[in-house]
Design goal:
Helix content: 40-55%
Number of helices: 6
Radius of gyration: 22 Å
Strand content: 15-25%
Strand order of the largest sheet: 1-2-3-4
Oligomer: single chain
Structural class: alpha+beta
Shape: elongated
Order of helices and strands: EHHHEEEEEHHEH
Amino acid sequence: MAASESMPAMSAGDVVYESTLVVDEPLLRELVSAKDRSMNKRDGLVMAVVWAVVLAAYIWGTVAAGVMTAWGVVAGVAILALLGWSVALAVTGFTLFWPKRSWRKTADHWFARHGVGTGNDQRCELRSSACLSEARCCVLRDGRPAGSVAKPYKAFSHVEETEHLVVLVAGDGEVGSVLHNMFSPSYADKLAERADLEDICWDKRTLRGGTPEQLVEYLERKVGARS
């Protein structure tokens, strides 16, 4: 079947799925969220266990003392809040884009690596391809390739989905615990290093070759079959 104007041909003969996307800051947040999700779930589970133990010790201590002070109430509420936050993190794996200066440094680093300078309207056009034996991504300038990366599927760890993206996550770079990273000056640097692993993502809205569900199944099969 010949490709129509609304469904352009693939960029190469070995391409199975492909999409072109314009990455701005909101879409980059989705990409980072997908990359961090599995790590955040792990950290959330660890913290939930820790705070559950603390809560149990707090209840035991309060009952043993037989008295409840105003500070004790404050401490109890704080422990419950931290436990709830940890459980939510363990379940959803959400990313906290805070402090703002760390996120700004991370975003600027990612855009700079893709040929975009600093500013209020950072955008980068990418073309991502799921091929028979590798995944590819190239930066587009005026519709033409201006730098690309290609990796075999064994270089990736797993597949994640967001509202608009299917993300092939490259490895599981460790950046430390969530609570420590909130106040660590090296957190942005660690995230930047992790970003250099170069994930590849496809936009569900411009996907060619099949549905997002079919792409996810294809990528999971390829990553699962890695040696």
